[in-house]
Amino acid sequence: MSDAGNWCLIESDPGVFTQLIAEMGVSGVQVEEVWDFDNIANLNPVYGLIFLFKYDQNTAADTMELDQSQHSTTTDHVFFAKQVINNACATQAILSILMNRNDIDLGKELVQFREFAQDLPPDMKGLTISNSENIRRVHNSFARSEAFVNEQQPASGQDEDLFHFISYVPIHGALYELDGLNPAPINLGPCTDADWLSKVRPIIEARMATYSSSEIRFNLMAVCKDRTLVLTEQIDAADRKIENAEKKLARAVQTLRSERELLSVFLSDEQEKRERYRSENARRKHNFIPLVNVLLRKLADKDKLAELIDTAGRKANERAARRRELQQQQVQQQGPAR
């Protein structure tokens, strides 16, 4: 691995990584720090994980020797780049996730970069990253005078802790560990988009357990869909549910109103019937025949009798037609409501 050259150290921070990804032209992606695996599902969809840990060359060599059987022999479907320069492991870990996802809008420049480098061997991919003016410019724009991450041996020769970034990402039905210091990707077994987070958890926890109890300097970050987009989509979905519920409620209210109107007609009929009963019962107690005969003769003499008969018949027909109309509306509206 070459010297740091003109690649600076950058801070392990989700805000830095989110802005770095955006300035590389990627849309709809952000980085969130993971404090608790139990709550990581709240960030779904999660595209990949970036793990920062203290780097021990002796431990790393032992781990690489144990993991040789897991190194993928076929990497055509995995975008894997060797890390050929110092200080670039943060950006390389991010690219390891972005380059292996087909559900991320990479932007024009990274799409062209992936198309150019896809078929290159891992070491040439690493050189292509190091020689990318756009990627190096964005990376160096986040330079800090004091950074948490340090992959360089101090010039003084004194011991200093080194830290390193690696990525975990599901690719074509398998969980991969992508570490630019390894010769190839490590296939950690089959997975799906639904269960890969549960499968990577014990792997990361086991890696942390290899350190002494006094070592707590770990950092885990999730590369996930932009939460503003996720929340906006959820709000839109809630609005659609509200609209559908309001439409169903409006239909139900209209049905109930029709039912009420029909019941009101029935009630009016019943009230009229009761009034008629009272009138009829009153007439039963009195002899109105002489009076009726006189009235009918008077109405007939004035040519009013036929008009009154027509009016009474028309009102009776109108009430009957209205009842039929309301009954028909009730049947039609109750059908879709069920």
UniProtKB/TrEMBL annotation:
Site (Important for enzyme activity): D179
Reaction(s) catalysed by this chain's protein: Thiol-dependent hydrolysis of ester, thioester, amide, peptide and isopeptide bonds formed by the C-terminal Gly of ubiquitin (a 76-residue protein attached to proteins as an intracellular targeting signal)
Keywords linked to the UniProt accession: Coiled coil, Hydrolase, Protease, Thiol protease, Ubl conjugation pathway
GO molecular function: cysteine-type deubiquitinase activity
EC number: 3.4.19.12
TM region(s), chain numbering: none
A Gene Ontology cellular-component term: cytoplasm
Ranges for domain UCH catalytic: 6-225
Site (Transition state stabilizer): Q83
Keyword Protease assigned: yes
Gene Ontology biological process: protein deubiquitination; ubiquitin-dependent protein catabolic process
Lipoprotein is among the record's keywords: no
Matching InterPro entries: Papain-like_cys_pep_sf, Peptidase_C12_UCH, Peptidase_C12_UCH_sf, Ubiquitinyl_hydrolase_UCH37, UCH_C
Active site: C89, H164
Comp. bias (Low complexity): 327-338
Chain segments annotated as coiled-coil in the UniProt record: 228-262
Region Disordered, annotated ranges: 319-338
Primary enzyme class: hydrolase
Pfam families assigned: Peptidase_C12, UCH_C
Similarity remark: Belongs to the peptidase C12 family.
The protein's name: Ubiquitin carboxyl-terminal hydrolase
